[in-house]
Predict the structure.
Amino acid sequence: MASPQTLSEAERRVVAAWAADCAERVVALFEAEAPADGGPRDAIARARAFARGELSAAEEIRRRFVAGRAAREVYGPAAVAAARSAAQAAAVAHMGAHALGAAAYAANSAGLAAPDRPRAVDEEVRWQLEHMSAQARSALRHLPPLGANSAGPLGPGLLASGILASIIRAIQTDLARPDQTASSS
């Protein structure tokens, strides 16, 4: 039986577009440190192509680790988080829960890039929620709460601790609000 973190292919296509939007907002932080490395931007483009139905899930599952290599090529924490956001967006073709990973890494990247703005992470999460489609919101509501299922990215691991966990919990809390189409915070 498939993990509840997988989502249907149709739902993964919907949330891939949102994950790409989240990652795209911070990809310049990676590119500032590694301007010749197009891996993260390519991962975002592939997530968008998957969302449009131009790439198959099988194609993207085979390529899902390519974008993650870029995070090892940079040293600045904001750049690393931006690369990981793009990699998570590309991985949505494999498992829908990666959309929350893309959002969490993007918000973390925004916060790391603006240490003088203590609300930067919250502002990025607010943008993410305000720019989430009703279809993406509906699909993401099908995911188990962070830590409730070990068969995927929302289980134990990097997303389940620290700032990334706090961000995902904030998003999931907002998603749990009834009759919400976007965050009102």
In short: The two ends are 37 Å apart (CA to CA). The chain has one domain: 9-176.
